[in-house]
Amino acid sequence: MIAITGANGNLGKATLSFLLKKTQPENIVAIVRDADKLSDYAGSGICIRVADYEDQESLERALTGVHRLLQISASATGVRALAQETRVVHAAVKCGVKEIAYTSTLFPEESAHFQAAHICRNTEALIRQSGMRYVFFRNSMYHETIPLFIGEAMGDGRIFYPSGSGRVSFASRKDIAEALSNVLTGPAFDNTTHDITGPEMLSFADIASELKNIAGYPEAAHTDISPEDYRKGLLGFGLDEEEAGFYASMADSIRAGEFAKTHTSLEGFLGRKPLGVQEYLRGLF
Ligand SMILES: NC(=O)c1ccc[n+]([C@@H]2O[C@H](COP(=O)([O-])OP(=O)(O)OC[C@H]3O[C@@H](n4cnc5c(N)ncnc54)[C@H](OP(=O)(O)O)[C@@H]3O)[C@@H](O)[C@H]2O)c1
């Protein structure tokens, strides 16, 4: 059986829908924290199991009989995320999961600015030590994060973001989901690590130019605000210190060039060109 954690999330649900085109529903276990959130799949024939990353026993119940697992990285931050991802790996080992695919991040290095990179680094190490065969998807940022980063700029093209001239090899979340479904239904996992990126790297000034062209915003431009002003702005929007620190670390990471890398592995998994940022942005207007 093939299981997916976070199966009702954006990436999990997209992967699930691709998986259903490739294998029988009886082979699929969708692991969710709240079964109601996957109610549209209730009659699909897949097995929906409830587990919480905070509850080791629930994870062990959910992973019983699973051969291949897609562990989608946690959406929590800090020590909670570290503990949650560790629980999933331990539960998988205990349940005899043989093969695991894990969604890491593009630069999971000791020196990374991005807080999540340290969680991913730890989880990758745990999986390597576990004896399970693995495939790591080191994902760049999703196209779908662009509207989140630039906020009101979707309406006028004026981007205020502390990313300097840092570029990002944005990738389509849907493409990543399709690629994951190919891996999950493909040959034996071969202990490999893949940089999963789009075909090009764009700075936020490049994104502003795209918005000028695509949406016709005459004032579209990127202003590189200070990291401190950005953090204050996030706090002003009601984020707490931990959340603001997380998003600020993401911007620091972009500024430091940690997402400025492209690779053809996504194209290889898809057997076609991945969607580019221009096509994504065009679809929004
Ligand atoms: N590369 C990028 O640009 C990027 C951007 C955003 C996130 N990410 C990472 O990629 C992952 C997948 O992205 P996504 O867009 O699919 O995120 P998402 O839509 O937020 O999905 C997160 C999933 O995790 C589940 N989850 C959260 N806390 C849980 C818990 N305690 N126990 C069990 N399940 C729990 C959520 O369930 P509920 O619905 O019940 O909360 C949801 O199914 C994220 O979790 C994050 O690590 C990457």
UniProtKB/TrEMBL annotation:
It holds the Pfam family NAD_binding_10. GO terms for molecular function: NAD(P)H dehydrogenase (quinone) activity. The keyword Oxidoreductase applies. SUPFAM superfamilies: NAD(P)-binding Rossmann-fold domains. Its EC number is 1.6.5.2. Keywords: Oxidoreductase. It comes from the Bacteria. Residues 6-185 form the NAD(P)-binding domain. It comes from Dyadobacter fermentans. This is NAD(P)H dehydrogenase (Quinone). The keyword Oxidoreductase applies.
